[in-house]
Amino acid sequence: MCPFVAQIPARLTDDILFEQKDFRTSLESVASHIARPCASGAPSPPMVFALYGRWGAGKSTALRVLEQMVEEKVEAANASDRFSRTWYEAPLWERVEDVRASLAYEIVNGLTEGDPTLLSEYLYIIAGMESNSPLIMPNDVPLRSSLQGAMVFQRILQSYSNAPPLLEQWMRQCADRMVADRLSETGPGPGREGSHSQRVHVVLVDDLDRCRKGFTADLLAAITQWLSPNQQNLFFVMAASREHLVESVREHLLLGPRYPEQALEKYVHLGVEVPTLLSSPGDVAEYLIGLTKKIPSVSGDGDLGERFKELEQFLAESGRRYPNCLLAPLLKVDVNLTPRSAKHRFNTFLAQFKPQPGVPLSPADVKQWVMRAFWPNFWWRYSWSLNLQAQTTGPEQREQLRQVNQLTEQVDQLIDLGRAISGLWELGDTELWPALKTLADQRGADLTDVDPQLLLYINAAPAWQPPPPPPLQDDGESDGGGGRGGEGGAGWHGLQGMHTSVDATRLGSNVNEPAGSLENQAFLLYLKANQAEDDGRLEQARAALEEIRQLTQQTDFPSHAAATVGNSALIAARVAGQELALQLHRAAMRLAPGHYNIMQNYADFVLKRKISDEYSVVDETLRRLLNEGAHHRPERTQALVFRFARVRNHPIPEDQIDAEVRRILTGIDSNPSLGNLYEAIDTLVELDQPEAVREAARRVAEAARSDHVRYAALRFFADSLASDQARQASDVYRFLLSTGLACLPDSDMDGVNHNLAVSLSQLKYMNIAAMLWEDVYRNSPHDDTVRRSFAIHLNDMNRQAAAEAVLLGQELDPLGLEPEALPDRLDPDTEAWWEQLDHTPHAPCASVAAKEDK
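The structure assignment produced for this chain is given below.
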């Protein structure tokens, strides 16, 4: 659990709050005046100071800083024994009937430095003034507690409520005499000469503007009882808003109704305004960074400490880039911003700051945490709903999918509205709302659970994008949602596909090119984007890809760097949205119009995204591939031709489909390689021939001479089964785990565990599916497919809090589940031909499903 920052006053070392020279100088002047009698020995008449400021402006902090300044000056004069203080927390005494008595008690307690013995003796003396007082106690019976002492003291003083200021003078003299006697018993020491004279005493009154005006007026009157000329070296410092004091005087004190400002001057001799302490987003960022360093439980080099160091970097970067930044809602400066409200904002965010152990912070996840913290209704309405429904498939879900698409359209409208007002960050919601409402009405946008600041924030870097809904086909079915590597593998129904869309062209930097050449710049940016995607730093990946796009616009950008641009387009399709990916594909096509792999990737992208405006270019591209490029991966070209026919609703004759299937399987028999299998699956999926996919995968697996090929072929076989034959698919996945094939260096055990969890979830083996996902989530914390599937499953198990944490990428508490007992075969009626394959013995994978197998 992440700790919070305490709502306590800051210290003098919080430079960001006290770097304003004028304010610091004013505090220094007050502190010098209070401490001067300690150093000089010359008495000073009593005086009342006030620190003015609105709620949360830092008045309590300023009081603490002033106290520290006085202490430093007294210590520098070697006069600590001649200084004492009282803290009067006004709200704690507001319910006490006699304000004068409560103030006297706190001052006397401070004068005697809280010594119970001295306080007891003092109370006896006061009580002895009334001969028949029932409160007189024998001198040998000490007061049993400070609470009893306070009650005795209050009851005694209440009987003298009409006494003149002589009572306060006498109490002060007695207290000073008692302290002097105690010091004389311990012998002389530094600063004790003349200790019989009145010491310097300061009374610090905090949070007065949190009290009723009547109480405030009574306290001002009670303070005047301590301001007689015979009182020396006594100072009061009050923290309150000036408006509260003026209104209290106006409503409750003599002359207040007619001359409140002048009347207040009789009670406050000098006022110091607490200025706006956080005047810029950079100030707020620096202040919050300082707060994180003072949280004891995150200091040091532990894992949580590392995450907070990363958060500090995000804060610093956001302070520089505001408003187009990750943590903008924490840093916004408005008329209501105070140190207290900044802490409140920060704690609101920290309630969602639950990073996974050992996992570096992802900007995309942090953005979700900010949205969940400050706009929870929006998050539940859109992000939660879309993520938990984005993988729904099947004809029976057609209406639900249409609702998801409608919700996505609403989000897109809201994102567009945010872009329209993106230059108006500094305006408040009141000023922005009329314009936003007008735009929303014109565009038919729904503003439920939305405010202008949210729309501005979702467009700030990194921009928030809702999960894409699965597209509806004409028969009402979804074409599935791939996971990692879903640009071309078997990505059925939320499964994780295998990487197949890799540009065959060698990527690399020409050693003869200068280091700063455009080619090498583009290649290094490609590597940066690739690594950022792997790390889940999607904003950095998008920024690198945008730089590549800008480089391609230069007239001297080399054509032989087209492959780098084309592969950058593949990354952009996964992390940066359709527009940037399309621009990069176009740039690669322009740079190398005869590069067949680039041509195929471009056509593949356009057809998958169904960008109809590009169909004429795709038509010409496929014609060229069929003729002049007929030798280059013809199976892939044929698959694209079939897909192009499907997206345009051009039926493919059954005899042509049958002939193509026979041709593909014959090719597999003659060359049962993974390369041929990849090409075959592209075409067979486009022809909607799942049985042929399975047959091709089986033939490659049975002919394989290496475990790597066996794993890949069996993985394709199982993935193709998962959507409609979950039992058989589960048996194959468990075989891969139990034989160790799924955890070989080139395999993907997390992908197998995830897909097995999907199948077992369909079969209602809820616990073991959740346990598989629990492991995968720990190993692949930034995988959106895993997180969405796992969250849906947890929600189905009525574990909404856990589902929310997974969807947000937060730390997940152990689920504490016991796995169900699985039978040896989930589909015993089907031939388990894969168990007859010859493979090298390996240790089983460390998977809960593998452990179930015998």
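Interim note for the steering committee: Confidence is low (pLDDT under 50) at residues 130-144, 188-196, 471-493, 499-515. The radius of gyration is 38 Å.
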